[in-house]
Structure formats: structure tokens, C-alpha cells
Amino acid sequence: MVIAVLISALVPDPAEKENTLGGLAIAAVVSLFFIFKSLNDQWSGTITEIKTEKKYQADDDGGGETYDIDYAYIRLTSGKTKKIKSKREWKVGDKLEKRKGEGNIRIL
Predict the structure, then answer these.
(1) Do 92 and 47 touch, CB atoms closer than 8 A?
(2) Residues near 98 by beta carbon (within 8 Å), at least 6 away in sequence
(3) Cα 104 vs. chain centroid, distance in angstroms?
(4) Model confidence band, residue 36 (pLDDT cutoffs 50, 70, 90)
(5) Are residues 17 and 51 in the same domain?
(6) Which residue range is the domain that position 64 belongs to?
């Protein structure tokens, strides 16, 4: 309701209001999907490797920048390997656990 009032104040054209509300609804559904997926996930494993990878992000004007991202490779108890962004305090050999219903990853 509040979002609809804000959109009506910011977007005076009725045709644009419908498109804006539809876009917001789709974005909300996609966001909720990923939130529930993350909360429903559960696993545990050991960090086997931490690698730094370079990522390039382009700008609209044709330029861009390269930045480094640290990834932790985790050997799960199921035998599979999981790649996630590493936190600073993590190191090789740490045992991690992601519990169902929690958003954070614990160091055991």
C-alpha cells in the first residue's frame, strides 16, 4: 500500500504506474525466492582452499574496473565441493556449518 502511494506520487502517467507496479511485484517475488532458498539451505564441511579471483565489471560508458574476490572452496560432508565468497576470518582447515533457518555460516 505504501509503495503504491509512493509510485502514484512519483509516476504521474497511469500506464507507467501499471508497469512500475508489475516490475516491483516481480522483483519482490524473485527476492523472496532467494531469501527462502538461502534460509532452507543446510550443509557442513571443511575449507580446502581459498582463492582470489579477478572480476571485471563494465560501466555504461564503456569503461570498467577489475576487483578481487576471495572464494572459499568447501568440501562438504556429502563429498561435493561448494564455492562461496570467503569471509576474512576464515582459513584453510576451518570447519563450517550452515544450519537450516539461519542466514549465517558458523565456524565450528
Answers:
(1) yes
(2) 41, 42, 43, 44, 104, 105, 106
(3) 12
(4) confident
(5) no
(6) 43-107
Q: What are 70's three cell numbers?
A: 576471495
Is residue 21 domain-shared with residue 32, that is, in the same domain? yes
pTM over 0.70: no
Q: What pLDDT is attached to residue 49?
A: 97
What is the gyration radius of the CA atoms in the chain, in angstroms? 20
Are residues 58 and 102 located together in one domain of the fold?
yes
C-alpha cell at 48: 580446502
State the burial class of residue 44 (Cβ atoms within 10 Å of its Cβ: 0-12, 13-18, 19+). Answer: middle
Question: The cell 576471495 sits on which residue?
Answer: 70
Total tally of structural domains belonging to the chain = 2
Distance of CA 26 to the CA centre of its chain: 17
Beta strands 43-58 and 64-76 are antiparallel
